Amino acid sequence: MLPATLDEAVAALADTPAAVPVAGGTDLMTEVNSGLLRPAALVGLGRISEIRGWEYQDGHALLGAGLTHARMGRPDFAALIPALAAAARAAGPPQIRNAGTLGGNIVTASPTGDSLPVLAALEATLLIAGADGARREIPVSHLLTGMEMLRPGEIVGYVRVPLLHAPQTFLKATGRTGPGRALASVAVVLDPARRGVRCAVGAVAPMPLRPLEAEQWVASLIDWDGRRALAPEVLAAFGDYVAMACIPDPPAPEGGGAAPVLPPAALHVRRTVATLARRGLGRALA
Ligand SMILES: Cc1cc2nc3c(=O)[nH]c(=O)nc-3n(C[C@H](O)[C@H](O)[C@H](O)COP(=O)(O)OP(=O)(O)OC[C@H]3O[C@@H](n4cnc5c(N)ncnc54)[C@H](O)[C@@H]3O)c2cc1C
């Protein structure tokens, strides 16, 4: 089935409840090929032109779920939402970026999904289409944390992202050179109007983590009106604060005794997060 509109796609899913929507197929076909999924039918979303672009709406960008990573990586999109463009450019090799979509990245909700920490830091929301023209809006974080799920027959139509007109960064570390899944990733978003810093860490937990105390601490130290730069020690302390919040030390044993230490692999990831957060904030403020 190849519907041409969002409502046709929802209707196709209502007609064939066992059908599964497919956008770029980069995640779905991996599951099919490995025998984990045997969909009775597919509803292709690739011909729905209304969800392949974006539009402006009340200080927000309404991004179609069918936007590919390749499209989001282009300069005009990067001027709009720089961190999401950087995440899109980091998402896999070119073949994957040409086919893989924003909506697929969100619905798969892999811990290593590159767009997810950016959307969490931006506090983006999802516009979901359901049967009979029903629409509902939920924070992306609700879907990623399992607080709310997609109901049967629903399709993610759009992602609403606030346009902050301020620097933002996305940095990703992989375990190897060249394209690869994130070992850790960090998105940093400045919100000068609210004098806020928002940060989200990806790949270290099942969903992106927000180190809220570290965000508030560093936002209180930024000279929002002037040009005084943050001292390198403050940037380093922010990195450590973020990393410790996301990958804390194991709790001390109840009856006393030596506290257990983090295994070396976890320590490595924690140091990586600290470095990414320090650099990400430093670049955003530069
Ligand atoms: C070799 C390889 C490398 C990769 N590297 C990366 C990487 O570095 N970073 C990264 O983030 N990802 C990576 N990925 C994962 C993948 O490319 C992305 O998650 C991509 O964004 C998925 O989008 P898609 O359109 O292909 O989704 P699909 O495969 O089409 O769909 C994925 C899931 O989402 C559902 N779905 C899709 N769109 C919608 C919608 N609008 N509404 C409701 N449900 C929907 C489908 O039913 C399916 O369950 C990689 C994948 C491969 C195969």
What does this structure look like?
By secondary structure, this protein is of the alpha+beta class. The chain has 2 domains: 48-162, Uridine Diphospho-n-acetylenolpyruvylglucosamine Reductase, domain 3 (2-Layer Sandwich); 169-285, Enolase-like, domain 1 (2-Layer Sandwich). Helices cover 37% and strands 21% of the residues. The protein has 12 helices and 10 strands. It has helices spanning 6-15, 28-33, 69-72, 75-80, 82-90, 94-99, 102-108, 115-122, 140-144, 212-219, 232-246, 264-285; strands spanning 19-22, 41-44, 54-57, 60-64, 125-129, 135-139, 155-162, 168-174, 182-191, 196-202. The strands form 3 sheets. A 5-stranded antiparallel beta sheet has the order 3-4-7-5-6. The protein has a 3-stranded antiparallel beta sheet with strand order 8-9-10, sandwiched between helices. A two-stranded parallel sheet has the order 1-2. A hairpin with a 7-residue loop joins strand 8 (168-174) and strand 9. Helix 10 packs antiparallel against helix 11 and helix 11 (232-246) packs across helix 12 (264-285). The protein is globular. The termini are far apart. The structure holds flavin-adenine dinucleotide. Flavin-adenine dinucleotide (FAD) binds next to strand 1, helix 2, helix 6, helix 7 and strand 7. Flavin-adenine dinucleotide binds at residues 20-28, 30, 45, 65, 91-92, 96, 99-101, 103-105, 107-108, 112-114, 155-156, 181.
